[in-house]
């Protein structure tokens, strides 16, 4: 597996710098029983899809609700993440408590994200109805639960992310530019920034190389 990248994007992007949080919730991965593949899958998505300059905070923690809550709060309140993405712990098993932790630390919920992800996953597996994924807002941070398997992460995140940059923008967070070939972010025309002119981009690239 390639090394985990905790920063990326294009310094010439029209987007603002952004900080993302990635939390893998898994008893076994956190104890070293197996390597976490889900968190790196989310980071790989950011590397492919995000044009804005970005950095990431990444943690692998057990299925303990107080720890999940505190990790989300730290990434939102201390690290300044505009987006915190969790993976794992959203099923019906007794220790699957990620949705409860998310609801406990958010002031408002955005259930549409969970509904969309279940709708997408149902195209692949009937057990998608067992998923309790949700999303919510903590101050100016969007918190969203993703599935636990890397394949399912990409099946869902590539679709739901289309609305996430505008959601963060409405929450007075950074303007996030995406690679439209990977994820074409939706915004009303009035809320889009003009693209960087080709000549200005070329000049900026020359200046950047000279620094």
TrEMBL record:
Instruction: Extract the CDD domains matched here.
Output: MogA_MoaB
What is the protein's given name?
molybdopterin molybdotransferase
Q: What InterPro entries does this protein map onto?
A: MoaB/Mog-like_dom_sf, MoaB/Mog_dom, MoCF_biosynth_CS, MPT_Adenylyltrnsfr/MoaC-Rel
Q: What is the lineage of its organism?
A: Eukaryota, Viridiplantae, Chlorophyta, core chlorophytes, Chlorophyceae
Any idea which GO molecular function terms this record carries?
A: ATP binding; molybdopterin molybdotransferase activity
- Region of interest called Disordered, as start-end residue ranges on this chain: 187-211
| SUPFAM superfamilies listed in its UniProt record | Molybdenum cofactor biosynthesis proteins
MoaB/Mog domain span:
21-167
What Enzyme Commission number(s) appear in the record? 2.10.1.1
Q: What is the main EC category here? A: transferase
Gene Ontology BP term (one)? Mo-molybdopterin cofactor biosynthetic process
Q: In which pathway does it act?
A: Cofactor biosynthesis; molybdopterin biosynthesis
Q: Which domain of life is it from?
A: Eukaryota
Q: Which UniProt keywords apply?
A: ATP-binding, Molybdenum cofactor biosynthesis, Nucleotide-binding, Transferase
């Amino acid at each position: 597996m390639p090394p985990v990248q905790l920063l990326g994007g294009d310094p010439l992007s029209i987007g603002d710098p952004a900080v993302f949080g990635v939390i893998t919730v898994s008893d076994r991965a956190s104890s070293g029983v197996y390597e976490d593949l889900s968190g790196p899958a989310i980071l790989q998505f950011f590397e492919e899809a995000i044009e804005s300059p970005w950095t990431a905070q990444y943690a692998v923690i057990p299925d303990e609700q107080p720890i999940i809550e505190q990790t989300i709060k730290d990434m939102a309140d201390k690290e300044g993440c505009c987006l915190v993405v969790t993976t794992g712990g959203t099923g019906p098993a007794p220790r699957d408590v990620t949705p409860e932790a998310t609801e406990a630390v958010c002031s408002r919920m955005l259930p549409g994200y969970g509904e969309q992800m279940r709708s997408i996953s149902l195209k692949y597996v009937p057990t998608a109805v067992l998923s309790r994924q949700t999303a919510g807002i903590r101050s100016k941070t969007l918190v969203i639960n993703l599935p636990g398997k890397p394949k399912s992460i990409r099946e869902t995140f590539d679709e739901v992310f289309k609305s996430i940059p505008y959601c963060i923008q409405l929450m007075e967070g950074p303007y996030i530019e995406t690679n439209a070939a990977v994820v074409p972010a939706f915004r009303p025309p009035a809320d889009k920034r003009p693209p960087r002119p080709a000549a200005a981009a070329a000049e900026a690239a020359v200046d950047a190389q000279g620094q």
